[in-house]
């Protein structure tokens, strides 16, 4: 389908879930992945797999309202063939990531950093 001459292309839509309860991890995963792939039930199942013999699961809130720990996020990503990499801001992140060859990087920067372009430098 072609656009009319002089028409501006519409910006791409961004998937975003608003925060609800203590489901930060679920919303963060879905927002980063740009679709609703995870639910509270799915996160609870991951918690059970991470601590199958535990009466009080250490990977979520005692009240069952969410508040999942980072192990749940990492297991969810691994289930999709993805990985989370710990980043220490004291480490030369971009240089290390780019030195590994072809990779995908999600980098969140402030508007000021974006405008200056200083995230492009690896020094």
From TrEMBL:
It catalyses: Thiol-dependent hydrolysis of ester, thioester, amide, peptide and isopeptide bonds formed by the C-terminal Gly of ubiquitin (a 76-residue protein attached to proteins as an intracellular targeting signal). It holds the Pfam family Josephin. InterPro entries: JOSD1/2, Josephin. Keywords: Hydrolase, Protease, Ubl conjugation pathway. GO terms for biological process: protein deubiquitination; proteolysis. Residues 11-123 form the Josephin domain. Gene3D superfamilies: 3.90.70.40. This is ubiquitinyl hydrolase 1. It comes from Ictidomys tridecemlineatus (Thirteen-lined ground squirrel).
């Amino acid at each position: 389908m072609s656009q009319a001459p002089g028409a501006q292309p519409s910006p791409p839509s961004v998937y975003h879930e608003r925060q609800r309860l203590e489901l930060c991890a679920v919303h963060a995963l879905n927002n980063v992945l740009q679709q609703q792939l995870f639910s509270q039930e799915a996160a609870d199942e991951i918690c059970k797999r991470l601590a199958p013999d535990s009466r009080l699961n250490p990977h979520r809130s005692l009240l069952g309202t969410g508040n999942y720990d980072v192990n749940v996020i990492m297991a969810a990503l691994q289930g999709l063939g993805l990985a989370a990499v710990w980043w220490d801001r004291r480490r030369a992140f971009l240089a290390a990531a780019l030195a590994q060859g072809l990779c995908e990087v999600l980098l969140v920067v402030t508007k000021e950093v974006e405008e200056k372009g200083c995230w492009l430098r690896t020094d």
